[in-house]
Design brief:
The chain is of the alpha/beta class. It has a single domain, classed as 3-Layer(aba) Sandwich (Rossmann fold). Helices cover about 45% and strands about 20% of the residues. The protein contains 7 helices and 9 strands; from the N terminus they run βαβαβαβββαβααβαβ. Strands 2-4-1-7-8-9 form a 6-stranded parallel β-sheet, sandwiched between helices. The longest helix has 22 residues.
Length: about 180
């Protein structure tokens, strides 16, 4: 499993669907799996209650045996809790998910804010988005290091070929591939 992460509005779904076509690997959204297995509905404001508890549903979905052997899972290393504060998804979740590689998507905060306004009708500040994205990238790299797997940081819209190469061929696990 390839884990694709990034903040809300960075382009995870678009990127994952594009990778499906390029590589022929099915993709899934962690949020959709959590909603399905937990019988939940998430708000458009992207604030999440019970972050730790929701991970149980994600792990249940992954271990259900209903997913192919190889796939892309897009989700988050950090989420906004019910108070709007950045909160890390527990490291144990990623040990259980056991990804083979991690891709972290990034984009200019101004662009992300614009997408969130259009898609979610939710306005966030550029500075809050910048901080959220920095925490997502930092924690994602830390998780990859702890799991001993490769991590690549790519622009969600412009780096499809580089990301596809990373997925197909990879890099030395001791390095972080970073593009933007």
């Amino acid at each position: 499993m390839i884990f694709v992460s990034g903040v809300h509005g960075v382009g995870k779904d678009y990127f994952s669907k594009r990778m499906e076509k390029i590589l022929g690997i099915k993709s899934y959204s962690a949020s959709e799996l959590i909603e399905k297995y937990g019988n939940l509905n998430f708000n458009s404001n992207k604030r999440t209650t019970n972050i730790n508890g929701n991970q149980h549903y994600l792990i249940q979905a992954i271990k259900s045996g209903n997913l192919p052997r190889e796939y892309i899972l897009n989700g988050h290393f950090c989420l906004l809790n019910s108070n709007g504060e950045v909160e890390k998804v527990p490291i144990n979740t990623f040990y259980q998910l056991n990804p083979s590689k991690i891709i972290i998507l990034k984009e200019k905060p101004e662009i992300i804010v614009g997408r969130r306004i259009i898609r979610d009708k939710e306005e966030t500040s550029v500075e809050e988005t910048r901080i959220f994205q920095e925490e997502e990238i930092t924690y994602g790299k830390d998780v990859a290091r702890k799991l001993g797997i490769s991590v690549g940081v790519f622009n969600a819209i412009n780096d499809f070929e580089k990301a596809a190469f990373f997925i197909s061929h990879g890099i030395d696990k001791s390095k972080v591939m970073e593009e933007i």
